[in-house]
Amino acid sequence: MKKAMWTIFGGALLLYIVIVMVIAVGPAIDLAQTPPGPGVVPLTPLQEEGRQVFASNGCDYCHTLQVRPLPEDVPFGRPSAPGDFAYATPEMLGSERTGPDLTNVGNRRGEIWQYMHLYDPRAVSPDSIMPNFKFLFREVKAVPEGETAVSIPAAFAPKNGDKVIATQKAKALVAFLMSLKQAPIPGYKMNGGMGGPATAAAPAASAPAAPAGGYAYDAAKGKALFDSTCAACHQASGEGVPGAFPPLKGNAAVDNADPTLHLHTILHGAHGVTIGGVAYAGVMPEFGSQLSDDDIANIANYERSSWGNHAKPVTPSEVAKIRAAGK
Ligand code: HEC
Ligand code: HEC
Asked: What atom in ligand 2 is closest to the CA of residue 244?
């Protein structure tokens, strides 16, 4: 009788130990031995501090930090690989996507945008349901020496005229968010490079070619691309945010028969250009590496024909020419 009891207890214990080894200890050892992927670098102390702020404020309740190899994840970047997480332990993969995946957000948004968005998401994303994180900022009468005020659109700025400055926590958090950039995997092709389900997202590549002879601007695509890639900074109204992002409505580079500066800015980005007499502190990111000539032509034509702009449309071959000319 006693022997049978020990057999049952010992057997169950052994089974338990085997299961723990297989589903927890083994994978942990395997992960710890995974070398960092190409271009994956350790976080700086400030970025690591920001990772703690990210965790302690529950950002991962609404945001994942993992891109799945599924067609619906294509907008967030290439599928995550184990080597991406070599320095981000313990991993915060997240499981809920009330907001977008943030794996590659450092390549999508700039620093100024991040500060404005954390202070009040509605200031840059009008329909956002993300809570504000104003407690990561201080409102002051005068900006102290060595600090820079965060640019906030008038409708969202403190009503008493106070200036908004970032606390150490906000600076660390933004440093972490800006570090979220996927390193390219040599030889990996987005849309179809993976085989399996990702290939299902490829139809764009095999879409019917433009009718021979004429180029037709796809207005709906131009608007959709502008809204998803440019409107966060330049606003859907094309009016920009005073002091932070220039208006494209009536912009001399956009509403201009010569598209060179317009296309050059989209392809290569810009910094330190004085636009309409205003010097902008922010950086216009480059989109040449993310968008095809066709997409850029559609976006440019949307801008050239919206908000009262009336500039001659551009073609993908003009984009290709300016791309080939280089920076
Ligand atoms: C209640 C859910 C929720 C929480 C909590 C939350 N967010 Fe968001 N977040 C959203 C939603 C929804 C969006 C999409 C709308 C928008 O851009 O504001 C978003 C958008 C974003 C974006 C822009 C992503 C992109 O691709 O444009 C960033 C960056 C971001 N959140 C960071 C954070 C950080 C950092 C925290 C924690 C301090 C946080 N979020 C907490 C819901 C949330
Ligand atoms: C992260 C914010 C941000 C995003 C996103 C963004 N821009 Fe900009 N853009 C800027 C800033 C900042 C400037 C001013 C740069 C400067 O002063 O040198 C600018 C300038 C411009 C200009 C004016 C160039 C000139 O010399 O007058 C154009 C045109 C432009 N952007 C188009 C676009 C298009 C098209 C997209 C989407 C594909 C886009 N921007 C996305 C921030 C952004």
From this structure: 12
